[in-house]
Please model this.
Amino acid sequence: MASEPRASSDANRKRMIPAYVKAISGSLGGTVEACCLQPIDVIKTRLQLDRSGAYKGIVHCGTTIVKTEGVRALWKGLTPFATHLTLKYTLRMGSNAMFQSAFKDPETGKLSNTARLLSGFGAGVLEALVIVTPFEVVKIRLQQQRGLSPEHLKYKGPIHCARTIIREEGLRGLWSGAAPTVMRNGTNQAAMFTAKNTFDVLLWKKHEGDGKDLQPWQSMISGFLAGTAGPVCTGPFDVVKTRLMAQSRHGGELKYKGMVHAIQTIFKEEGLLALWKGLLPRLMRIPPGQAIMWAVADQVTGFYERKFLRNAPV
Model:
């Protein structure tokens, strides 16, 4: 009798999709997402950095950029953004799978909602510290520059930007805004992974490892819905992150001394709603981005399930 629970546990363990498969699915999804949604990210960054009210909204910001800087300006920072997304999703999906494997019940192989939240939060914290912060510092510094003529730009490209930051501000400059980034990404991924699983079960009766195929449009709906809550909850962290990353330590005093000081300063000078600046473009970017990413990722994991898990019991 003692061998039966162990056999059941082994069967559940075999039905889990390996972390490397999840990592590959995330990298492919991140590449496609970056190419599709970079213009919205540029507009979001410009709106968040706009203190003078130069842009009247999303459409006005986009048309102003195109009119004054050309269409190519909407893809400013694409190289670090695409690299950053690809690496981020690889680490996020892979580490989340590893955390879930560690947190699941050893007897039943099941994952509780608390364990799923902790796995997502852990993956978010890890990606924030290892990948997101330095890449976003470079991306934001490039995006805040106006114009396309290289001789008039301080940063000539992502590599030059990173080298300049290190030379002028030290290696620590690449991790400006790390605290709000950790809070934003940890909270986002805890909510996103839990919500994605919930919507898959509720809408499509899809359980991981059951061998059931999800159509791309089904993955897109689940991913879109899962990606909506995070931006609303983490808006202040995103604004503070952008402000901290955009300011340079080279010459002069820093306006924002840290996460808490930045929140207090923005609230005092610009009002409460300023902490949610750029929310609409975030909602235009993140849920569609999650829809695109999951449509690709679920096809990769679905292929693995069809090949190796089709006959596994639910």
